[in-house]
């Protein structure tokens, strides 16, 4: 650690401040000597701030003591040791072990990003520390490279600065209108105020891994509004350097905290990488795809597997509350989480970050390169009583050649978070509100911002052998058309009483930065035409992709006549 100054005061009659070695979020950190035990320690001093009223100053002192109580509960080699907490002249001092070494942020600034093996080692240490903290009911809430120390000589990883840690059952001490934590590393559910829990620390760790591998957080933008929008709404694009650890990174950066990769699973996957050089696609093992927290693995097809010699099982969506058979009397669908998060963050931004940040969220632009392509601004769609969406403004991203709006006739309503798109070919389907339309020859695509999720539709004439043979021919060409093609399977099925075939496979994507992907593809015959509808997404986002796929298939309406 570098020395910034000296003081030589003696605190509480025993701790002699010798050199200032850093500045934390709430004050100055000193190297000091414990004159009673004859050892070197680190002393964190909370500096006074005349801008705070007495009540606020008292809350800051309470926060320091809470930090001491939280960390003092924990015994772990990768968590800073708290020796003592004292108060002098109405100012608290936190006495901790002295770690001879700089922060992870300092290391990256001096030496640049680390390789995948070192990132995995750091991740394993922090996951082990977090598991101990979480089991004790302690949340860190500010995991970032600056709060991770690397001990000189041993390279021991030490998690420090629990200054805004929250102990289960304790009152949260946050100054009114201020943002607690580091936005680039803050989970969307905590940023929006919807909830906070151990999963939020895991999101922060996912962002930290991206930073140590590439040199900067994937959510870095030029403004606070841009960061808020990137965390909550933009497509998440891990850096190319994260490719060896991509299943872990994507699992930790799942916006749904209930699906986020769990501590034990993430640690196990990183250990597997260090032992074998390969990261499992999910917590279930090398063959698992897109696994998430608590050992849950999304379903891939489930009951749709046909049996030899028997009629194929009909296609059924995995989301039971998405309408499937016949026009429903009311739209009962699972709301999309993303619009809820954006709306909640908008409220939080109005209160804490100012109206300008809220406006950025509304219009999706002005965030230093993280907005929609071209910076086109769009307004949120207006909801109708049935859960369908009103037409977007003319020329807005996602507007299809036909009308886009409330469903009529025999169409099924678009679930919350989706809109109904009608194509000039006569068919219609529900697509996510923020997906934009493009066309390549006979294929129509709807793409998420940044192109991470890709929904495609192709219409052709009826082919000899039907959908099953068409899909099997496509699967045979899978290795040639899809780099790293694997785990492909074609299943005969039905869709609304029509012959159909489902093809699923995993592949490596078109670039290392894109990373491993999974594709769902349903082909069926209807009214003298053959329809092919597919969704492709990163393996870490298969649950969200499956929702898009289910909704598109379930709401698809072929032209009449």
Automatic annotation (TrEMBL):
Task: State the residue spans of region: Disordered.
Answer: 275-335, 367-419
Write the Enzyme Commission number(s) for this entry.
2.7.11.1
Residues the entry annotates as binding ATP: 44
Record keyword Membrane present: yes
Against CDD domains, the record matches this protein to: STKc_PknB_like
- Start-end of Gly residues biased regions: 282-294
Q: What is this protein called?
A: non-specific serine/threonine protein kinase
